[in-house]
Design goal:
Length: 98
């Protein structure tokens, strides 16, 4: 699923640059496999490892794919499941990216 979504996330990141911050969080795998994934998809947004699962636990993410949208006031909304580019961009714009 990450392979399917990566191009959409990258497109949204470029379209909304300076308006939203996007971070990818890898739960499983090695640092090398994460870096290979980033290179394969030419991702320009930040990607971090969550080896101990603290980020996932903080936002109640039980499985991937998942999306956590954090507003400037610190409130967050967690959505489980894949999103295509149109849905992702619409969600980001709704939250203040437009």
């Amino acid at each position: 699923t990450c392979n399917f979504e990566a191009p959409s996330v990258e497109a949204a990141n470029k379209k909304l640059a300076g308006k939203v911050l996007i971070f990818g969080v890898a739960w499983n795998g090695s640092e090398q496999s994460m870096q290979e994934f980033v290179a394969k998809h030419q991702l320009t947004f930040a990607n971090i490892k969550d080896n101990d699962g603290l980020v996932f636990a903080q936002f109640d993410v039980a499985y991937q794919p998942a999306w956590v949208f954090i507003q400037q006031d610190g409130t967050s909304e967690t959505n489980l499941g894949a999103m295509d580019e149109v849905t992702l961009t619409a969600m980001l714009e709704k939250l203040g990216g437009s």
